[in-house]
Fold this sequence. Notes:
Layout: H1 15-35, H2 42-49, H3 53-60, H4 63-70, H5 72-84, H6 95-112, H7 114-121, H8 127-130, H9 132-148, H10 154-162, H11 167-176, H12 181-195
Keywords: DNA-binding
Protein name: TetR/AcrR family transcriptional regulator
InterPro entries: Homeodomain-like_sf, HTH-type_TetR-like_transc_reg, HTH_TetR, Tet_transcr_reg_TetR-rel_C_sf
Amino acid sequence: MRELPVAGRPPAERADAAHNRRRILRAAAEMIAARGPEAVTMDEVARAAGVGVGTVYRRFGDRARLVYAVIDDREREFQSAFIKGPPPLGPGADPRDRLRAFLRALADRTEEQADLLLMAESDPPEARFRDGSYRLYHRHVAMLLGQIRPDADTAYLADALLAPLAANLFLHQRRTRGMGLDRVKAGLETLAEGLTR
């Protein structure tokens, strides 16, 4: 019997489509682990997964979306922590404490998969902003800022606080400038404090 779609949930995936998706993601993850994220091309992933390149493009659209799909599991854990986890990252803490905890946790998250995020955020150049994760981060930061400073332009300030966590700038600071992760986090906290006075 065919499963009926449930409102608010994506449509049920055919078994063969789900199987292909798993094969594609496994192949992409293995390539990234073996040769780094720059090795991921749609053609190579298709060959490694044993599917046509058209299947990869139809399923993921472009390389950025494929890379985001590979990092999706870790992203889900992070989102769960700030949406419904314990305070101060999760609900129940003062908005200033939540904002600081969120920025620190997002810095850890970026550190963990910076090379993958760099690849995903730069192919095409606007990829970072069309990704659902960025939109969720932006909404969360804007909400916290609105609780702290209801008169502020929270949409602009949320972008300003998230900008230093773009993978390209983050990696430049970490690898080229030699900044430690604690220094990056301290800088984020200083920015947040200045914007929430």
